[in-house]
Write a structure and sequence with these properties.
alpha/beta, 8-stranded parallel β-sheet, two-stranded antiparallel ribbon, 8 helices, 16% strand, globular
């Protein structure tokens, strides 16, 4: 129905934070979110393809004002793009599809903070590649319970278990939150020197040590299984002994204060594996990332 024919009654927008047009149009928004509903490379529990829709739906219940930062996040403007159509035949082609979509938004105007809502963690590869085309000094903060450094897994080199490996072939990657890995990955870490911060941290100053490995422009990738299953069980591969909410957001805040976050993703949310509260938690994390990046960043 054309806008001029709609009856004069309230409507609830279906975008992130349920924002009105003046706070969600592409031209007026400082941030863009791209839903990527894929889980074709998951290896344990499926359902991450439903993550983006669940996160966006739950975000409507979030308050726009952030107490911690004392900012109205909606005032930055957040544009929610349409869901990216999956390419189920070839993970490599899906990586390139994500790269093209992220590049389209990230290069508009003076550059918009562009975030991907996954979907399995293979979505990170294309998104990081797109940001690397814009920021040649890019470094990637890869926050995950798993190392994702397998050269190949289940017949593909472009799946969720190889994301950090593929990205590290093109730019620096720092792993944080790792608490399980394959022998192949351990050997690769030792041979390549990829900065790896296991969980729980060995040093009280680990955040400072993490930041020291990052360049000025940072892409943040978060696999929600980095959180302890007590807080976030709705993931494809839950791993006990993980971060708590305040530990994760504390790290993200420090990074945003000392580096320039240019893009991000939040992946591996499988809503059917949890409760409605977990959709809210995942949406809140996306909201916090936007708030940290735009409140502290110089755009």
């Amino acid at each position: 129905m054309p806008d001029h024919q709609k009856p004069p009654v309230p409507w609830t927008p279906t975008n992130f934070l349920a924002l009105p047009p003046q706070q969600s149009s592409l031209d007026s928004s400082a941030a863009v979110l791209i839903p990527v509903p894929i889980d074709s490379t998951t290896s344990f529990r499926t359902g991450a393809r439903h993550g983006p829709a669940a996160i966006i739906a739950a975000s409507a219940a979030l308050e726009d004002y952030d107490i911690e930062l004392e900012v109205d996040v909606a005032e930055f403007g957040i544009h929610t793009g349409p869901p990216l159509e999956p390419h189920v035949g070839d993970p490599c082609q899906m990586v390139d599809r994500v790269r093209s979509a992220v590049s389209y938004y990230a290069t508009r105007g003076s550059g918009k903070l562009t975030g991907v809502i996954g979907g399995d963690h293979s979505a990170t590869i294309g998104s990081a590649f797109a940001h690397l085309e814009i920021n040649l000094d890019l470094s990637v903060l890869y926050i995950d319970a798993h190392a994702d450094l397998r050269d190949e897994y289940q017949g593909t080199a472009w799946g969720h278990s190889s994301g950090a490996r593929r990205i590290a072939e093109r730019c620096p990657v720092s792993l944080v939150g790792v608490r399980t890995l394959a022998l192949e990955e351990k050997e690769h870490i030792e041979a390549s020197g990829v900065p790896t911060f296991y969980w729980p941290p060995e040093s009280e100053n680990y955040i400072t040590e993490v930041i020291s490995t990052l360049g000025s422009h940072v892409y943040v990738s978060i696999d929600l299984d980095v959180l302890d299953p007590a807080e976030m069980p709705a993931v494809g591969t839950p791993e006990p002994g993980g971060m708590r909410w305040s530990e994760l957001t504390g790290l993200l805040r420090r990074v945003s204060e000392e580096r320039h976050i240019v893009g991000f993703d939040v992946c591996e949310f499988a809503p059917d594996q949890g409760l409605p509260a977990h959709s809210y938690t995942a949406a809140k994390l996306v909201y916090k990332l936007i708030a940290y990046a735009l409140a502290h960043g110089s755009r």
